[in-house]
Amino acid sequence: MGAPLTTPLTRRDPVYATTPFTSFFDEFFNDFLARPMLPSMAEVAPVMRARMDVVDKGEKFLVTVDLPGVKKEDININIEGARVAITAEMLTETPVKEGEKLLYTERVAKSYARSFELPVEVTETGAEAMYDNGVLMLTLPKRAPTEARKLVVQ
Fold first, then answer.
1. Could you count the other beta carbons within 10 Å of the beta carbon of residue 142?
2. How far is 28 from 22, CA to CA, in rounded Å?
3. DSSP code, position 76
4. Per residue in 87-138, pLDDT tens?
5. In the chain, what's the furthest Cα-to-Cα distance?
6. Cβ proximity of 52 and 77 under 8 Å
């Protein structure tokens, strides 16, 4: 009754001991995981995938992206052909007024990123970006298709 239902594999376990490359993998992963690969997590803002909707309205796309808490100055939008990339950063700080003593605070630092490809290329001419109450709304006109030209051989 007092014994656990599962026990971790150890080197004394007969199943573990029969694996031919056990020590090789142990050494590799122990050495690999012992090295710090990133700065401490306190220094890195988590990158969140922004939620979005894309609607095809015939001659344009309407893109709605949720970016809660972000200031519009901190939003970057890059359009290259049919590829759209949106990034935003948010940092909240606790203001301290004169005569107050801040005893405890939790600051939030987040980064949002979203990159996607539309079915056809869009043009920046006539494109609009509106940001209101944590929601980014993009209107992206489709690029007019180019007509095929017939080349005359001379």
1. 18
2. 10
3. E
4. 998 877 777 778 888 777 777 778 888 899 999 999 888 899 999 999 999 9
5. 93
6. no
